[in-house]
Design goal:
The protein is built from eight helices and no strands. 56% of the residues lie in helices and 0% in strands. Among the domains are: 53 residues, no CATH class; 54 residues, no CATH class. By secondary structure, the chain is an all-alpha fold.
Length: 180
């Protein structure tokens, strides 16, 4: 019922001014007979309309209008001019915008790499070392890159190494470093 009351109260002004079609007018009348809250809102609105209708509009002579107009114009001319950032002519922002746009284009071209850059391939030594580091059960030849130290978690001896390769890179390591 609350939704229906909200719709009724929204249309009360048009109802009192007789601006609704006959069907809608009958629906609101029916609702007002059943709902005391909406009836109370209708009475408040009627009272307010009565107050408004009782207010008289004063008459103003053409001489009074002319005097008021003249005073307004005089006061507008006496107002101080606005100063500050917002009084900068709009045309001055165009060079600043062009500079910022040029700067963004320069940064995009010089700093951000595009797909055309060529990278050097990684040497086989490095690939093999990375593979050996990942699969530390293999024997890693010392002296290839002394700055990398490898700690083996599982000590493996030559006798324990099987004849079957454990990965695709093992034959390459055997051929390049002589590891069997």
């Amino acid at each position: 019922m609350a939704l229906r009351c909200a719709v009724i109260q929204k249309n009360l002004s048009a109802f009192l001014d007789k601006q609704l079609d006959a069907g809608k007018h009958r629906q609101i009348e029916q609702h007002l007979t059943e709902c005391s809250d909406c009836r109370h809102k209708k009475e408040e609105l009627k009272e307010l309309i009565g107050y408004i209708n009782d207010v008289s509009i004063p008459t103003v002579s053409p001489q009074q209008w002319e005097n008021t107009h003249r005073k307004l114009i005089e006061n507008i001319d006496k107002l101080p001019a606005k100063k500050g950032l917002f009084r900068i002519p709009k045309w001055t922002f165009a060079p600043a915008g062009a500079f910022i746009l040029a700067l963004l284009i320069y940064v995009a071209i010089s700093v951000i790499p595009f797909g055309g850059q060529q990278y050097e391939p990684i040497p086989v030594d490095v690939c093999l070392q990375e593979h050996s580091i990942l699969y530390s059960e293999q024997i890693f030849p010392t002296g290839i890159m002394p700055e990398i130290t490898i700690t083996e978690t599982d000590q493996t001896t030559q006798e324990e190494v099987s004849d079957e390769p454990t990965s695709d890179l093992d034959p390459l390591m055997e051929a390049y470093y002589g590891i069997n």
